[in-house]
Design goal:
The chain is α/β, with parallel strands linked by helices. 44% of the residues lie in helices and 22% in strands. The protein has 19 helices and 22 strands. An 8-stranded mixed beta barrel has the order 13-14-16-17-18-19-20-21, surrounded by 4 helices. Strand 20, helix 18 and strand 21 form a beta-alpha-beta unit. The longest helix is centred in the first third of the chain and has 32 residues. The structure holds ligand C2E and magnesium ion (2 copies). The site of one magnesium ion has 5 residues, from strand 18.
């Protein structure tokens, strides 16, 4: 009989049945003593019995040959000869010793091969099955779909993983993936297979009797993933988008259900819904999204994109000090499409450069109109992360300014907090150049990213815009109020102008004024205004009594 132990000491492999109770692990009491000497020995049945190892009394003697690698026995060869009445002799011992040595070599080679194969099929970081192995499991589930309980493919993709990687470094990113893998593993039922397909993309194959059960399971995945993670002493929250597809009897291979789960996952990400089940409609909508790309290209060329302007109010004086340019797509059949729907499409397709140029050109023309009307107002334009990757951006902006004879200091570029950290060195040099052109810079949606204070301090920015998610709830949620208040203090300590976004009510406006916030923007002041109505609105702004400072 041959018994091989795994790295943890448990039995990895047994071959042969010889009427002796074989070791159950490398630390099996009696056997440990026998293997300790690491030499080939003949053992009498009485000795086995004394060690508490069952051994048939008919056997006259047993040869025990530990198979040794790097000083430790990782296997044992146990030999009995049923045909002779006498025990083994010296010659037998020598022969078994040489067999054991040869076995050591080939077992080691076999184990290496096994390990390489395991590594090829598993992900080294998380030890989870990798894509090929997962596909094989799914293919098995597809093959047995008629005879088994319903099986589901669940795709999971972390949201904003790249940001964590770029901001906190790759070790933190790795740490996050390991923690995520551990959390998902803890939720698995018997027979479920969790795999890491690539980067931050994971998948689970599971069988559940009903759709309700799988809904419950995937919800628990979302909740578990959303619990804060400690990375580098920072507590951060990372969410996950989940797509689910049931394996159907019309599937022929693993690719089909995995593709459906993937489509559902992208839908969940797109709509920020957490979990989506695959439906034929979303598949049909994919071509629609593609046609939207075609449309967007034409829209830019046909000037269907419009720019609207939202006023910014200086709280201490009650004066309107500027406007933010916000793009709108006047779609001939879909109606007004919000930027959240197409800015990302524009980024993914390289159309963002044209989009930004378009908004810059409309906005800067508006600035020269302000001049014509003697309105001393600034204007802000939103940039996308992709704009910051374009080293020609500063020149492009300068060209627009010069063509319209507008001073750079009246233009503010808004950059979202999260995009500041994507490839920081590259964005940093663009930011510095923009600064050299004489433009103002604002950090948009502040509070939603992971910027560190020290980094922020070194950036050439002038303005901090507190994200509307904190402002909206500041009168009802004490934490939000604390965040807004400390952001105002923080901004002032860094010599920045602090703007609150999404101000929807007068009480919030008053509270912001009390805590010394500089500027407010939101529906309570005005919704974004179409270009042709803007000058009139601005002219009448002084007469709006509620804009005045509180007594
Ligand atoms: P943002 O730059 O933070 O713009 C503020 C958003 O909040 C605008 O949405 C605005 O309409 C909305 N808003 C203003 N006041 C209120 C309020 O009181 N309550 C609430 N709930 N919302 C308010 P919009 O126009 O849909 O733009 C959304 C985002 O799309 C913008 O966020 C910006 O990041 C991006 N975006 C807009 N225009 C452009 C653009 O021209 N280029 C680029 N790259 N991104 C743009
Ligand atoms: Mg903005
Ligand atoms: Mg914002």
């Amino acid at each position: 009989a041959l018994v091989r132990f795994g790295p943890d000491g448990a039995v990895a492999h047994v071959n042969g049945d010889i009427g002796i109770s074989l070791p159950e692990s490398a630390d099996d009491n009696g056997w440990t003593i026998l293997l300790a000497d690491r030499v080939v020995q003949v053992i009498e049945p009485a000795r086995f019995q004394a060690l508490g190892i069952e051994c048939s009394p008919d056997i006259p003697g047993v040869l025990v040959a530990p198979i040794v690698d790097e000083g430790a026995a990782f296997a044992v060869l146990v030999v009995v000869d049923r045909n002779i009445q006498a025990s083994f002799g010296r010659e037998d011992t020598a022969r078994v010793k040489s067999i054991a040595e040869q076995l050591a070599v080939s077992l080691r080679r076999g184990m290496l091969h096994e390990r390489l194969e395991w590594e090829a099929r598993h992900d080294a970081l998380t030890n989870l099955p990798a894509r090929t192995l997962f596909e094989r499991h799914v293919a098995d589930a597809v093959a047995s779909v008629e005879s088994s309980p319903p099986a589901w493919v669940v795709m999971l993709d972390l949201d904003r993983f790249k940001e964590v990687n770029d901001t906190l470094g790759h070790h933190a990113g790795d740490d996050l993936l390991i923690q995520f893998a551990g959390r998902m593993s803890s939720l698995l039922g018997p027979g479920d297979v969790l795999a890491r397909l690539a980067g931050d993309e994971f998948a689970i194959l599971c069988s559940r009797q009903s759709r309700e059960e799988i809904v419950e399971f995937t919800q628990s995945c979302v909740v578990e993933a959303g619990r804060p993670v400690i990375l580098d002493d920072l507590e951060i929250v990372v969410t996950v988008s989940v797509g689910v597809a049931q394996i159907s009897s019309t599937d022929h291979d693993a690719v089909q259900p995995m593709r459906r789960a993937d489509i559902a996952m992208y839908n969940a990400k797109w709509q920020r819904t957490g979990v989506e089940f695959y439906r034929d409609e979303i598949d049909r909508r994919t071509p629609a999204r593609l046609s939207m790309l075609g449309d967007l290209r034409t829209a830019i060329e046909a000037d269907q994109l419009e720019v609207v302007y939202q006023p910014k109010l200086h709280l201490a004086t009650g004066n309107v000090v500027g406007v933010e340019a916000l793009v709108r797509w006047m779609h001939p059949t879909r109606g007004v499409v919000a930027p959240s729907e197409f800015v990302r499409v524009a980024e993914d397709t390289g159309l963002i450069k044209q989009l930004t140029d378009l908004v810059l050109s409309h906005g800067i023309k508006m600035l020269s109109e302000f001049d014509d009307h003697h309105l001393p107002l600034g204007l802000a334009v939103n940039l996308s992360t992709h704009d910051l990757f374009d080293s020609r951006l500063p020149d492009r902006v300068r060209d627009h300014l010069e063509a319209n004879d507008v001073a750079p200091s009246s233009l503010t570029l808004e950059i979202t907090e999260s995009s500041l950290f994507v490839d920081a060195p590259r964005t940093r040099s663009t930011l510095d150049e923009l600064h050299d052109v004489g433009l103002r810079m604002a950090v948009d949606d502040f509070g939603t990213g992971y910027s560190s204070l020290s980094y922020l301090r070194r950036l050439p920015v002038h303005e901090l815009k507190i994200d509307q998610s904190f402002v909206a709830g500041m009168l009802t949620d004490q934490q939000d109020e604390v965040i807004v208040r400390s952001t105002v203090d923080l901004g002032h300590n860094l010599d920045l102008l602090v703007v609150a976004e999404g101000v929807e009510s007068l009480p919030v406006l008053d509270r912001l004024r009390e805590i010394d916030c500089d500027v407010a923007q939101g529906y309570v002041i005005s919704e974004p205004i179409p270009a042709e109505e803007l000058i009139d609105w601005l002219r009448g702004a002084d007469s709006r009594a509620w804009l005045g400072p509180a007594e």
